[in-house]
Amino acid sequence: MAGLNIADFTPAGTLAAEDLGRVHLIGVGGVGMSGLARLLLTRGIPTSGSELREWPALAGLRALGGTIHMRHVPENLDDVDTVVYSTAIPQDHLELEEARRRGLRIMHRSEALAAAMTGRRTVAVAGTHGKTTTTSMITLILQHAGFDPSFVIGGEISEVGSNAHHGSGDLFVAEADESDRSFLLYRPFVSIITNIDADHLNTYGDLAGLEAAFLEFARLTDPAGFVVLCADNDGTRRLAETLRAEGRKVLTYGTADDADLRLSDISSSVLGVRYQAALHGRPVGEVRLPVPGGHFGLNSAAAVLAAVELGVSLPVTVEALAVFPGVRRRFERRGVANGVVVYDEYAYHPVSVTAALETLREVAAGGRLVVVFQPYRVYRTRDMETELAAALALADEAIILEVFGPGETRGPGEGGVALTAAIGLPPAHKVFVPDWDAVPGEVVRRAHPGDLVVTMGAPPSSLLGDELLAALTAADPAVGGSVSPVAG
């Protein structure tokens, strides 16, 4: 996947969403595209989309008045003014080629999102890990404080039940995706960078190229605004030094002694995470989150800094985080069947997979941990095979699916087989399952009462949860129907 040539796109602020006319989104079911579609529909903009599978978000889009075509054909573009695509859509896609033939306006998703941001103060959240959770936390805090921000998030806030909203306030909160350089299309008032770790090197070449892009993104921040960075990550620390030397307003958070918002006494359990916080050297008390995982504590610190600087009081900020319900596909409990708890988790980078499995190990509380992992992107699986294998070895049982890599081609020796072989578990405790329909049966064979099963990785893996719960229940006819679904 090559990076986008940002110079080819419309600069942020040139167009507003209302200038786009009737909008059609190719591949509208994915979380990013469905969030944009939801935002457009709630702004009263006629919106359609095309898909090949019935993604969970589609029912909500139909309820908002969206037209969803369950096939890709030229007729889908009748009466359309603007066609939106994502990086996952190949340039020779039938509908893209038809849009060119008809002379329609064609926009990348990030370009259309930038148009939706026009006239608002944007809070853009970037970073290799933690974007969705941090964006969700900031959104919830601002909502709790009565700001009613607009937002587009790469996952649904469990309490809100949505990944996008058109608010009445002047703030717009959004994730900024670095994978294809599209985050360089935004002009934020607040830029947040959670961390910079090696990823998307097929676009940037090396870590230095990736860091240079994050620096460019930070420099796009409004001079009247500010940048929030993690003091515990080498890449963001270097970035903070550079930006401060340029006279930009930078706020940092983390466990480092020099962090503007310093965390200490961090503890995590099945009941959640808590820590002591000090802002600019002044103790501000305990911050609590009802979701476990020390990495969520760091995410929340970024949200606290941004919210307080935007005018939310500390007590209101801490109060909002205390009821943070979590984000779908981020440590989401899907249900229980015959004593086996099933979770879903989006992590696919080695760092985030490690953090997620360590937290799930805490939650398993003595039970075995079974991971069903679908690698995301061929290049990442190949280049980070050793690191991914080490992370997955934290589980007791590993079931590996084939790589999900739209538009990519696997080379000899690449993919799920190679990753499975590299995992440091005994052969009987790891297996490559290329057939999607065979996964539930494999889980039934390996999971026992008291165990925790997590589906993890590429977006399609989120669709497995219900199938696993049904299979686990059916495995014991005497206890049939014992599934206890857990909302959110």
From TrEMBL:
InterPro entries: Mur-like_cat_sf, Mur_ligase_C, Mur_ligase_C_dom_sf, Mur_ligase_cen, Mur_ligase_N, MurCDEF_pg_biosynth, UDP-N-AcMur_Ala_ligase_MurC. It comes from the Bacteria. Its main location: cytoplasm. Keywords: ATP-binding, Cell cycle, Cell division, Cell shape, Cell wall biogenesis/degradation, Cytoplasm, Ligase, Nucleotide-binding, Peptidoglycan synthesis. Residues 329-458 form the Mur ligase C-terminal domain. GO terms for biological process: cell division; cell wall organization; peptidoglycan biosynthetic process; regulation of cell shape. It is found in: Cytoplasm. Its EC number is 6.3.2.8. It catalyses: UDP-N-acetyl-alpha-D-muramate + L-alanine + ATP = UDP-N-acetyl-alpha-D-muramoyl-L-alanine + ADP + phosphate + H(+). Residues 125-307 form the Mur ligase central domain. GO terms for molecular function: ATP binding; UDP-N-acetylmuramate-L-alanine ligase activity. HAMAP family: MurC (MF_00046). Belongs to the MurCDEF family. This is UDP-N-acetylmuramate--L-alanine ligase. It comes from Asanoa ferruginea. The gene is murC.
